[in-house]
Amino acid sequence: MTTIRRVQENTAHQLALRALVVRDGGTPSPIAGVTLRELRVNRDDRGTLTELLRSDWPDLYDDRHPFAQAYVSMTLPGVARDDDRWHVHVHQTDRFYCLAGAIVVAIADGRASSPTSGQLMLVELSAIADAPAPLVVTIPPGTLHGFVVTSDVPAMLMNFPTRLYDPADEGRVPFADAGILTPGGRPFSYDAVRALYA
Alpha helices of 81-189 — where are they, by DSSP H? Predict the structure, then answer.
């Protein structure tokens, strides 16, 4: 294969992958049960205040999505948690928010009975000043998910899962076994996401 053709194919693949990126809450989710809530940042001369989880937001909090715990993880630039495999939960719903830096959350519908089975989406969560409005993304049980840091500084992810940590509820699925493909027909990898943000 010629170098020009390889560059053309890589460019086409990056354009197709970029089309999967969601940056705001006004974009409909291509995966059933995944919700995106745009948050309002209240600013004044003292700083900012942003509400992250409220009991009157039924898309984030209701009888099916109770509050169980909150945690924060810090991840270094360019790092993906489990670089070659998806996370999946049997019962737990995750609610991700980025406190610092920038991440891209990859979500794939691994539920055979879902109307969006096999779909892939990338959600950009950022706390960087010139980024779009901050988002909370809700990730339902059975969906494959993970994230990679795309900022040149460490990123802090906050999660409000609907269940207390239970190792029996959490699984890992190697990318090679999941069969999730990008629009160009290539297997999903975080290297492809890193290339978008290089």
Answer: 175-178
